[in-house]
Amino acid sequence: MSIITGSLGDSWQALPESLRRLLRLGFAGRIHLCEIAAYCLDSEDVSLAPIGLDAALTAFGENPLGGGLARELLATPALVPLLPRESGAVLSSLVRHWAAPSNIEYFQRLLARRDFPKIKRFIETNAARDAENAYWREQALTFGLIDADPDWVEAQLDLPGTAVPEPCLNAARAQVARFRGHHVDAARMYQETGPLFGPAFAAIQAGHCLLASGDADTASLLFLDALRRTPWNTSLILRVHDLVSGADRETHALPGSCAVLLYTWNKAEELAATLDSLLGSELEDCALVVLDNGSTDRTPEVLAEWLPRFADRLGADNVHCETLPVNIGAPAARNWLMNMDMVRQRDFVCYLDDDVELPADWLPRLGAAVHCHPDAGVYGCRVVDHANPALIQHADQHLLVPEDASFDLSRTEPNPFRLSNLHVQTLDFGAFDVLRSCASVTGCCHLFRTEILLESGPFALHLSPSQYDDMEHDLRLAESGRFAVYQGHLAVRHRKRSGVASRISPSEEGNALGNKYKMQTMHSRVDLLAAAAREQELLECDLSRRIRLLDDLISA
Asked: How far apart are CA 19 and CA 77, in angstroms?
């Protein structure tokens, strides 16, 4: 079997279904890419070797100072003979100069507390003491970018005495330049890496950088050339399709009226910033309803200041504030709001968190998603960290259900399933700027058709205070055949840190685990497996449609 054939469509159809299931999720994220590589390299089909090699080197390219990853790659017997000479030499050099300290308990405690000033001081001290150890350069790159401090990262990368291979340092510097917004410089740096990180990695990353700089024409040429060399790269297929079709620039007014719903509790400063961005956005035929969950800070004063401004713009009858004596929690707040008469009369309902910053075109961007997928159950967006937009908190999440698991209430995971999380395995390099269907989107910017929202039932009160109630609601919609749609061309900045940038207390973690247990008991194996199978069919149809368009373009 030959993988690289005359067309993208032929190449895709030649792949085994079990590999396509992995690739449909995307071609990004260290853990996911290593899973793809392992599948291909463990396969008896030698024609899958180019895909396995590309996945492994792409993971390295995303983590160019990752000595632990480099060691794993060099310890993979099926991979080593496939490595280009330069790639193998750089991996070997990195491994020789990378060593995790024997005792990192204190460092791990700092990481658990997310005490970034102390984390950086600790890294500085050890990097100066052990200058040749690439481990500390890796930590500097990782946690310096998480803390949005590129100056500090560059200072650590440029310390004298480092034995880190220069190609790895250059790839790390490209990430820093990209973070700074120096996209043309970053594109040049990536292109200078050549085939070190795979046959198309340099072109793809340079293309994303040039696209961010406004040079869509050159980016398109780089992307199309990369597709010819790596037709299995589904993230690239998705992104190039949206670029050449114009989906990444499309906006549409919602086909009807909308109620924008905010529930808040003791976040006066964040709420004011959210209302400021909301007032500055496009709000055609909208109403605003705010539920104050018994706030005891300055929230009432903030609402008294901002709501009259919305009344002037939207009309007094289209602005309402409901004040409760206590905090009833997010699920109950969502249910209260969706059942208000002035909300039920609207065609669409959009829930917003009280700590987000919205771009001016956020609603027309969601309108484009509605225009493209009019029958979806819910619409969401790419949510990024407010302090560091290079960190994606939420993107398209896909349902993964192990077929060999059973329902067992005695386990901490009584009914195992999960949602894909490629977006937290890497920085935002552009691979998630796509518009497509998925199983779940985040609830901090959640758009529904009102009719579908009311039909689908309330958010689960027993999943309070907030974990998993929006995910569980999305799963119910997916099981009914109404999948979510992810509008990755809309980025909403979220002030609450999550993922690698967050700090979660033991009580919060315990509550989350308890709610995860409860959520799993609410869904049957049969329904989950059926929904996962339907989603795979949906993703396959979507990819096939995009591939046909790109094949026509490439052959023209």
From this structure: 20
pLDDT in tens, 204-219: 999 999 999 999 999 9
Of the CA atoms within 13 Å of residue 334, those in its CB half-sphere come to: 28
Could you read off the pLDDT of 307-349 as tens digits, one per residue? 999 999 999 999 999 999 888 888 899 999 999 999 999 999 9
**Is residue 193 classed as helix, strand or coil in its secondary structure?**
coil
Helix (H, G, I), strand (E, B) or coil at 465: coil
Three-state DSSP string of 238-254 = HHHHHHHHCCCCCCCCC
Cβ within 8 Å of residue 262, ≥6 positions away: 271, 274, 275, 288, 289, 290, 291, 351, 352, 353, 354
Beta strands (DSSP E) in 270-376 are 286-292, 319-323, 348-352, 356-357
- Cα 419 to Cα 488: distance, rounded to the nearest angstrom: 17
> CA 444, CA 274: separation in Å to the nearest integer?
12
The closest of 469, 451, 248, 488 to 346, measured between CA atoms, is 451
The CA-based dihedral angle spanning residues 230, 35, 240, 424, taken in that order and rounded to the nearest 10 degrees: -150
DSSP string, 377-442: SEEEEEEEESS-TTSEEE--B-EE--TT----TTSSSSS--EE--GGGGS---STT--EEEESB--
pLDDT band at 104 (very low <50, low <70, confident <90, very high): confident
Q: Is 64 in contact with 457 (CB distance < 8 Å)? A: no
Distance, in Å, from the CA atom of 107 to the CA atom of 110, rounded to the nearest integer, reads 5
Q: What is the pTM of this model?
A: 0.93
